[in-house]
Amino acid sequence: MALVDITQRPGVLLGAAILLHVVLISAQVNTGSGLPILQVVTFGAFAEVQRGTMALVAGGRNFWFGYIALHQVHLENEALKRELQTLQVRLQHEHAQAQRTDNLRQLLELRERANLDTTAADIIAASGSPEFRTVTIDKGTNDGLATDMAVISPAGVVGRVILPSRRASKVQLLIDRNAAAGALIERTRVQGVVEGFGDGSLRLEYVPGSSDVKPGDLVVTSGIDGIYPKGFVIGTIEQVGPGSGGYHQITVRPAVDFTRLEEVLVVRTPAANREAPEGKQ
After folding, report:
1. How far apart are CA 122 and CA 8, in angstroms?
2. Residue 136 sits in the same domain as residue 261
3. What are phi and psi of 195, to 5 degrees?
4. What pLDDT, in 10s, does the model give residues 75-99?
5. pTM score, two decimals?
6. End of a domain among 82, 114, 146?
């Protein structure tokens, strides 16, 4: 049927005959170098096809290798990030351990120079109230603790035990608004009472207005309350002003940073024997 269609189209037959004639002539005609024109043309055409194919393959290969390399770089970056995070956590842990070791060393030095019967304790909880300032320590009656035992740190006075249980105790901090301690100004030996104000500061009360008091004066425990050992640092006077009843109005900055407190010493020495060695507070 197709043959009949072709025979009915003389133009097609003529074109095919001319093309065949050109091909036959090209096969017989040589170039200046002696090679048949048909062979040269055919080789050139196939060479271009091969060139295009190789370029396509090379592009695909480069794209694939680039993807693999990028994926590998991504994996390496993720591994480096994980390693960096691990090192950061390890560094924080080592820093915390070093800080704890330093705190324990200071507690040991305080115990040795204070010449008091003490036991070290860790703070395991703190009160959430901004006015009633208490902490919980991990020592209790099983460790010889009792109510009204003084709690100190290398920096100074912390507070007193107010509620001991068998394995833990609640400690009222000196900055609690219901806390108080007998105190004296170290420079002049003028006595008064330090009271918590609930805002993190202290007030030195009942110091006569005629007394010599200056900002920067060191305030230490007097021992008259029968709770805190005599001579331990309470804080430094920040402000002095006129008060009521002929007394100074004195603000004291605590020596202890209660926001960073982690370990303490609880004084178990009987009140009659509680006194810090002179000059070794």
Report:
1. 110
2. yes
3. -125, 145
4. 788 777 777 777 666 666 566 566 5
5. 0.62
6. 114
